[in-house]
Design brief:
The chain has 336 residues and is α/β, with parallel strands linked by helices. The chain folds into two domains: 8-124, Barwin-like endoglucanases, CATH 2.40.40; 158-299, no CATH class. It contains eight helices and six strands. It has helices at residues 46-51, 106-112, 132-143, 158-199, 201-209, 214-254, 266-288, 296-299, and strands spanning 8-10, 24-28, 40-44, 59-64, 67-78, 99-103. Strands 1, 2, 3, 4, 5 and 6 form a six-stranded mixed β-sheet that branches. α4 (158-199) packs parallel to α7 and α6 (214-254) packs antiparallel against α7 (266-288). The longest helix has 42 residues, at 158-199. It starts with 7 loop residues before the first strand and ends in a 37-residue tail after the last helix.
Amino acid sequence: MPACGTVSVWFPLSVPMEGINRIQLLSGRMFEKHPQGGGVEVLVDKSYFKANRLSFNDTVDMVAEGRKVSLTVTGTGTGPEFIYAMKDASTLLPDPETFGLIMMPLNQAQQVLNLPGQINQVVIKLSPGADEEKTAEQVRALLDPYGNLSSYPLKKQLSHAVLQGELDGLRAVSTFMPVIFLGIAAAIQMVMLGRMIAGQRLQIGIMKALGYNSRQIMTYYTAYSLSSSLLGALLGTIMGIGLSSAISGMYADFFNLPRAIGGVNTAAVINGLLLSLSVGAAAGIAASRKVVSFNPAESMRPALGGNPEPPQCSSGAPGIGDHRGWRPEGSHGGGE
């Protein structure tokens, strides 16, 4: 049965199977240039296929040259020019239910649109170092007699511009987000180690009295920070590898990509481990450097309420040089 909805179709009249801008078959089968049963066979993009609940061999009706033409859907496909299906530059978000992409053989497109022997698009790939502006001027001069409407470089192509903007945003996020999280982690490690060292002041004094130097004690406490950093880096790596396939699958669906990008980026894993360990080591050293100023004798004297000095007596109490004696309450002594 025909699919419901109004479809605005961009016709790539030249549908290459190889080379520049070639079609990638996603599901079903490729269309035939001359189908045995007649008619016109086409591929549609997968987003339009899902949004309109189409099945293979369903028909999509199109109005061309004032007449209705039935197109038989044989499969879904995509191409590098149509990874983000937008009607025009004023469209912010794709609407796959009312706008889709239809790919068909060149001979069938020419017959349906009554444009025999004609094409409507030329895609040119430049060699590295080629003058883009000069080449574009030469191409425009050649095509002007045939009704050249517009030309644009790759950076202004809609799908490429949207995808490149998304990649630039991800690159920026991947730069400042680790800095924020590692900075917070370093601050937490410094606070925790600082409290640990303050609470173990007596033990540090004993260790110094037994002959351990400050470097050895700092290394001992820095190992706490390094171990937590290593554990966090390993957990982050495992979770990142697990989530990467899910996130790439979401991007593949949103941008109409032929497949999700998988695999493990070894360089990113190694750099992440080194960065985490470096931040952990820096936090550990910064928090434990106060050990250098500890004196064994003073460290082994427990602090009383944060004040190592004994409490002072109130006014009139005996002090140094006071010859009056003190005795417990209830005791009896001789008279003065």
